[in-house]
Amino acid sequence: MKKIAVLTSGGDAPGMNAAVRAVVRKAMYHDIEVYGVYQGYQGLVTNNIHKMARGTVGDKIQRGGTFLQSARCPEFKDPEVRQKGIDNLKQLGIEGLVVVGGDGSYRGAQRLNEEGIKTIGIPGTIDNDINGTDFTIGFDTALNTIIEAIDKIRDTASSHERTFIVEVMGRDAGDLALWSGLAGGAETVLVPEHKKEIKEIADKIQQGIERGKKHSIIVVAEGVMSGHECGEQLKKYINVDTRISVLGHMQRGGSPSGLDRVLASRLGGYAVELLMNDETGLAVGIQNNKLSKTSFDDIFSATHTLDEQMYALSNELSI
Ligand code: ATP
């Protein structure tokens, strides 16, 4: 393979730049020409494709976001629109494509692979909700951002004897809420995968107050309900001073953590290796700290699950 391209798609995640850098550098090391597609699938269709030089990815490894930019492109589900993108790649003689993104981006990648562009997916999303990998690029950085926020909230919560509700990202996956709740010592974690009765939570807070507890922290994933709704529901059962913190997009930004940079570099390099070996239609990942590859078909035939042992532990530790 002489020419490949790389793009970032879907929601941005810290570490995407490090992944693109690894793809570009690894390919160049092996005398493969690399093109960057700006603005995700939209850029593929509008021909926003540019040749990368060694220096294009210089000074990017430490930056959050994605310098290639990302865009939502719902039209990409249409085969005729995708064909435009395929034609653009073929005109430049590009045979292989690396897509860094989440679940939706993988669907586009799978289609492209079926339609003649050899494609590899790299899991880039803070949600950690992709099958075929233990961790997605961006999860660790987002997790650390949330933990830092919880630590700060804990200081003020205990000074004023308040209950704080921290709303974190996670529409369908509770990983960010569970991991941050466990690491931040939250009293309650609400995840989309499990239903918890608000009355139970109120009773627990009440018992804590009676034992002399100075504060309570509840971490709620946005997919369960909003922090404000959680506060309103709690008020039906208990009279406590409640404050809500919605962390929002700050969870997506920031310089990638060491773990995310290393993960992104390993996965970026591995994606190029697979293309060089003519292996395609695969997503790369990390499983038991070993590089792994999974076909898109297998990725989509399984559903992401929460670590139930960890969920049980978080309940046990927050008595
Ligand atoms: P995140 O998890 O951060 O939301 P994502 O990759 O899941 O990332 P989406 O917006 O779902 O983000 O998908 C990104 C892009 O992938 C879409 O804008 C669209 O261009 C493309 N895409 C999504 N689903 C399909 C599909 N079924 N067929 C072809 N392309 C798709």
UniProtKB/TrEMBL annotation:
Chemical reaction(s) catalysed: beta-D-fructose 6-phosphate + ATP = beta-D-fructose 1,6-bisphosphate + ADP + H(+)
Keywords, alphabetical: Allosteric enzyme, ATP-binding, Cytoplasm, Glycolysis, Kinase, Magnesium, Metal-binding, Nucleotide-binding, Transferase
Originating organism: Macrococcus epidermidis
Annotated residues for binding of substrate: 125-127, 162, 169-171, 222, 243, 249-252
UniProt name for this protein: ATP-dependent 6-phosphofructokinase
Physiological role: Catalyzes the phosphorylation of D-fructose 6-phosphate to fructose 1,6-bisphosphate by ATP, the first committing step of glycolysis.
EC code(s) of this entry: 2.7.1.11
The protein's enzyme class: transferase
List of residues binding ADP: 21-25, 154, 185-187, 211, 213-215
Similarity field: Belongs to the phosphofructokinase type A (PFKA) family. ATP-dependent PFK group I subfamily. Prokaryotic clade 'B1' sub-subfamily.
Annotated Gene Ontology cellular component terms: 6-phosphofructokinase complex
Cofactor(s) for this UniProt protein: Mg(2+)
Molecular function per GO: 6-phosphofructokinase activity; AMP binding; ATP binding; fructose-6-phosphate binding; identical protein binding; metal ion binding; monosaccharide binding
